Amino acid sequence: MLAAALSSSSSRIFSRTIAKATSSSFFHPPRSTPCLAIRSMADSATASAPFTKVRIQREDTAFDAYVVGKENAPGIVVLQEWWGVDFEIKNHALKISQMEPGFKALIPDLYRGKVGLDVAEAQHLMDSLDWPGALKDIRASVNWLKANGSKKVGVTGYCMGGALSIASSVLVPEVDCVVAFYGVPSSELADPAKAKAPVQAHFGELDNFVGFSDVTAAKALEEKLAASGVPHEVHIYPGCGHAFMNRSPDGVKRRKSMGMEDEDEAAVELAWSRFKSWMSRYLHP
Questions:
Q1: For residues 262 and 265, what is the distance between their CA atoms, to the nearest angstrom?
Q2: 96 contacts 175 by C-beta, under 8 angstroms
Q3: Are 237 and 271 spatial neighbours (Cβ–Cβ below 8 Å)?
Q4: Parallel/antiparallel/unpaired status of strands 75-79 and 104-108
Q5: Cα–Cα distance measured from residue 27 to residue 101, given in angstroms and rounded to the nearest whole number
Q6: In degrees, to the nearest 5, what angle opens at C-alpha 129 toward C-alphas 128 and 134?
Q7: Spatial contact of 6 and 189, defined as CB atoms under 8 Å apart
Q8: Using N-to-C axis directions, what is the helix angle for 87-97 and 249-257, rounded to 10°?
Q9: Which of 58, 154, 195, 203 could be bridged to 228 by S-S, CB 3.0 to 4.6 A?
Q10: What is the β-pairing status of strands 232-237 and 199-204?
Q11: By three-state DSSP, how is residue 189 classified?
Q12: Residue pair 94/50 in contact by the 8 Å Cβ criterion
């Protein structure tokens, strides 16, 4: 049923939406940016992180996932940016796991072990993603958490993962709530007007991914969520660009190499505060 809901044409439309936005010079790093530097950032930042690697089975395939947080706490599936399961998505999951009153975070490896080392590789990985399969991975991740001590489970994601998290509110009935960061699925992939779980979404005012995470896309999302009837919030942060939540030293360096110079710690902290409030409201008894 899920595969039928997500046709291959919908997947291509979703990918093209990102491709158009990333084709501008804004999103390409200077030629001097070395791929090996990005590889070393990912390796060094994740090597000592306190994650447990688990294997999740779905239908006739299986995938790796990374879990951190309190046992039997409400679960949160954390969805990657187009880079893959790299240092920054693990930073986000670790922060989530340390929030009070307690959460268990799980990152499904949607790329099956591959990580984009530069913009071109990340674009290729995203374009090659099996979108119906990714939604199945999300559903299997939610159900794994519920089978392993989490009575309720939310989904969050960033950029590509943000769009997928909103899609999960439409297509994954086991999801209890969603928080999405700067990403909206095409209506062909999943129509937010049909969302079934509460959705909170965050966008940067300076984001220039037209039709995907710019202000116009954010306002269109708000209209569709209003039509769905689910509880929802859409927040737009003045002076912030795409991926403004990426605040680790390596994440800041990577954003700057891609032309994203904005820095606003207050906006980031406000977004995390809203995230915590939303997840606590719908996941904790």
A1: 10
A2: no
A3: yes
A4: parallel
A5: 37
A6: 170
A7: yes
A8: 140
A9: 195
A10: parallel
A11: coil
A12: yes
End-to-end Cα distance, the chain: 31
CA distance 161 to 163: 5
Query: Which tokens in the block code for residue 51?
Result: 């994650």
Using CA atoms, how far apart are residues 167 and 169, in angstroms rounded to an integer? Answer: 5
Residues 156 and 108: their CA atoms lie apart, in Å, by 12
pLDDT tens profile 93-123: 999 999 999 999 999 999 999 999 899 999 9
> Can you tell me the distance from the alpha carbon of 221 to that of 217, in angstroms, rounded to the nearest whole number?
6
pLDDT of residue 145 exceeding 60, the answer is yes
Q: What is the C-alpha separation between 141 and 179, in angstroms, rounded?
A: 16
- DSSP secondary structure string for all residues of 163-179: HHHHHHHHH-TT--EEE
Q: Which residues of 126-155 are buried (b: 16+ CB within 10 A; e: fewer)?
A: beebebbbbbbbbbbbbebbbeeebebbbb
pLDDT at residue 19 in the model: 53
Distance of CA 77 to the CA centre of its chain: 9
**Length, in residues, of the chain:** 285
CA dist., res. 148 & res. 25, Å (int): 45
Q: Report d(CA 34, CA 118) in Å as an integer.
A: 8
Identity at 64, one-letter amino acid code = D
The rounded distance, in Å, linking the Cα atoms of 57 and 139 is 11
Q: In terms of Cα–Cα distance, which of 20, 21, 9 is closest to 187?
A: 9
26: nearest Cα among 185, 208, 181: 208
Beta bridge partners of 58: 61
Confidence of residue 210 (pLDDT cuts 50, 70, 90): very high
96 φ, ψ (degrees, to nearest 5): -60, -40
pLDDT number for residue 28? 35
